[in-house]
Specification:
Blueprint (H helix, E strand, L loop, with lengths): L4 E2 L13 H10 L4 E8 L14 H15 L4 E9 L9 H4 L6 E5 L2 E2 L15 E2 L4 H12 L3 H18 L4 E2 L9 H4 L7 H17 L2 E5 L1 H4 L10 H10 L3 E4 L12 H11 L3 E6 L2 E6 L7
The chain binds zinc ion (ZN) (2 copies).
Length: 294
């Protein structure tokens, strides 16, 4: 059976525009076989775009009721996109188990400033890598004195820490610093230090057995051709045997399958012929859309 899924979907429970039910209906209309909800979560903290700790139970209950209502038409699963913030919050199954998630996506959105960066006594806010370009640039200056190599290397270090230390399923938008690099040009992906970082991270991912997502979310938000990860990253991941899933990181009904053809083609070009899907017994592998294999 052909499987069309997205396990990375946001709704009005966090920073999405549509309700979970509207997203389920749209997914059925678009012939999707699977939809997984992944509200932004940073237990036990919150922000304007994260679930508030008081809402976790209600969020979980709403997705459960949708499973009952639409279960015959589409496979619905319940997850969280859980933040990794060193020493404060981690995408750990044990932490989220009271809300019985089917899976967890682990994402790094914030990179803490190095403690020694000249302002030891002053609290410096972490660098938010997933923000509008001006904010990314401001944060880079504030937290890392504008040293992009240091900042981006620190990002990769946190990603590896998360992969190696936390218990979760899917690694979210793994090379997200590229998102604003088109506008800001703050680092070069061809420099040896950057290539070393991605090689080391692929190694960590392969060793962990975790699934890496191909994420098309930036395209729906107007950043042309930006799929995470890069083809270079994906080539290394394929060689190392890292399993993949294709996700839209959708925040609205009209972007549930945004740029999926492009994502499948990218996966195919890197050598992948199958992707991971969630079944009752856990993650299994099924062919990528065969239409692109010709
Ligand atoms: Zn994210
Ligand atoms: Zn997301």
């Amino acid at each position: 059976m052909k499987r069309i899924a997205s396990y990375h979907v946001h709704t009005t429970w966090c920073d999405g525009h549509d309700s979970p039910e509207a997203m389920v209906r749209a997914a059925i209309e678009q012939n999707m076989t699977d939809i997984g909800f992944s509200a932004h979560a940073m237990w036990p903290f919150a922000s304007e775009w994260h679930l508030s700790p008081a809402s976790y139970g209600d969020y979980a209950a709403e997705i459960r009721s949708l499973k009952e209502k639409y279960g015959a038409e589409i496979r619905i699963s319940r997850g969280f996109e859980a933040d990794y913030l060193e020493g404060a919050s981690a995408p750990d199954r044990a932490t989220y188990s009271p809300f019985s998630p089917d899976y967890l996506i682990g994402s790094v959105h914030y990179v803490p400033a190095p403690a020694v960066f000249g302002k030891k006594s002053k609290k410096v806010e972490p660098w938010c890598v997933d923000a509008p370009a001006a904010e990314v640039a401001r944060g880079l200056e504030r937290a890392f004195g504008g040293d992009a190599k240091k900042a981006v290397s620190a990002y990769w270090g946190r990603v590896r820490e998360m992969i190696e230390g936390a218990d979760f399923d899917i690694i979210g938008h793994i090379d997200i610093p590229r998102k604003r690099n088109g506008e800001l040009r703050f680092f070069s992906e061809t420099e040896s230090w950057y290539r070393r970082e991605i090689k080391n991270t692929v190694k960590a991912a392969a060793h962990s057995g975790k699934i890496m997502e191909i994420n098309t979310g930036a395209i729906a938000r107007g950043i042309r051709d930006m799929i995470y990860p890069s083809l270079e990253f994906l080539n290394l991941a394929f060689e190392a045997g890292v399993p993949i899933t294709i996700n839209s990181d959708s925040h609205a009904t009209d972007s549930l399958l945004c740029a999926y053809d492009q994502a499948r083609l990218l996966a195919f070009n890197a050598g992948y012929r199958s992707a991971s899907f969630l079944d009752d017994c856990g993650w299994t592998s099924a062919p990528l859309d065969s239409a692109l294999a010709d």
